[in-house]
Structure formats: structure tokens, C-alpha cells
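cron nightly-structures :: item 1 of 1
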Amino acid sequence: MPAKDPITPWFRLCEEEGEYIGIRYGRISPEADEPEWVFMRHIDFDGIGAFAEILRGRGAEIPRLPQLRHPASPSWRCLLRALPKFMKPRRRVKWGPLERGSVISSTNKQPPVAVAWHVFDELVTTQIRRVCRKTKAIRPYLHDESSVVPWMIPVNLRGKVVRDRDTANMNSYVGIKVASYETVQDIHQNIYAALGRGEHWANWYAYDCGRLATHRVKKFMLEHDLAMSQWNLGSFSNLGDWDSEKTITQSDCEGAWMFAPPVLRCQMLGAGCLTFQNRLSLLIQTHPDLTTSSAVPQAWVQSWVKEIEIDVASTLAEPVAGNWLAA
């Protein structure tokens, strides 16, 4: 596919509207307890590209970034098939009572303050890879726990999309809806079914059509939840497995790394996982319009870890140990 970037103009518009569009990365050095936060503008990078840029900037050699393996080919026909989904009304899932924290207006200069994380050790990470499941930790905080929850799942298009640099925006997404009774196998099947329908290409081409819309029209779409194929509770992104052979030895790269996608008024929760040198991390942040209290995402991360512990323990019949880190 020729070089172009239909995603960046939308992030630029979000920034103009007062949204903080920095992708959050955190590094906990071996001698530290608190993370060093690094933010990379989504205008310039996607999640994979920004992490590679950070590591390369600290001296690491990363010759080739992860590539899209799904065989679905880019085609405008995917967008035509997806048009009925784009035309459906957006229905938001209602939140139950939350600790709101202090009132802070969203600004394109201030990253979200409500954030929590957890880092597993290598042994537990190895165990988790066999049993890990999508979290149900947030359901108790919804107005109706049985609600079907819509999530945005980013999709890396490298290998099918060519840009002037390998760290540029090459992400699309699929929108899935998760029912309370679905298992991780069900969710994975739903994601792969969406990829099989070419929904990631439909959304890529839909954003490309944005060049035909005026600034006012695009602003209207953002304000009315029409800039995505569905309203999403949040974005869940797995940045994948990095440097499992531990070839990156630069001191500024050592330690645990974590990541979370940006949060927006139309998508107030950002959850990310990242495995660096065989240690899995979980990170959740929330939009200030939802809460500025870190106690809320901390409770979600605690529940998320507990679910994983139960899965691992039921499979291995032994307890899970981890290192708690929460803001």
C-alpha cells in the first residue's frame, strides 16, 4: 500500500480540542520503585513505533518491528461491507458510582493523573502466557454488570502499509463487543473474525475518507462519537513481546517497561500490556472526565491481577507472586 497517513489528522484534531494524545510509557529501573514516565505524541508515532523510538534513542538496536501476520488484504470493499456498522446508533455503557477525585479539566498539556500498574516476574510471566485471559475487572464498576462492553483493539498494519519511517503511525483497529459470559477463547475468536472481515482495513479507509470532510464536520463527528465504528468503553492494546533473548543491555533500557494507549472523552479508559525481557506489565489510565483518583484504576488492576492469579493457580496448583506497583 502506498505511503499515507489517514490517522494523524484525527489525533491532531483531538489535540486541538484539548485532548492529551501522548502514549504513556513507564520504565522502572532495577534500583527504583517508581516509574520514569515517557510520553510520545500519537501524531508522530503509534504504540509500537514510539516504543522502538524510545529504545533506539537509548542505544538499543531494533532492526525490524513487528509485522501484521493476518492474511486479509487491504481493499476499499472492506469499507463498503462495514458501512452498516458505521450507520448504527452509538450506545454508551453507563458507569456506576466512582470515586471522582479532584476536578481537573482535560488539556493537551497534562497527561492523565489516574494511573495504576503491575509488573510480574519472569517465572509468573511464563506461567501467564499459558492461561492469561481478558479482564472482567471493570464490570463491577458499571451501572449494569451484564452490559455488553465495547472495546477498541488496535491493529498493527506494518508489512501491509509502507511509510517514510518504520516508527510512524501504521495502526488501525477493530471494534469488538464483550459479553459478560464470554471466555477468552470467545473474545479471541471475535477479534480474528473481525480481522477476517477486514474491519481493520475498513476503519483505515474510513479515516482516509476524512480528508474529504471539513474541519467542522470532523469536529462534529468527534463530539458525537461518530469518528469510530462504535462507541468504546476504552482501548485495550497488547504491545507484544520485546527482547526475549535479552540482547538489549544498555543501562537506560534496563528494568521493567509498561505502556498504555491515550484516553479521550469518547474513550475514557486506556489499558495496555507489554512484555519486555520476559516480564509482563499491566497498565491502566483513565481520562480526567471519568476520574482523577488513582484508587479507581488501582482497584481495576488489583482485580485484573487476581483473575490472572486464579487462572494460573488453577492450572499449576501453586500461588502467584508479583511485585505491586501503583500510583
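cron nightly-structures :: done
The first strand starts at residue 22 and ends at 28.
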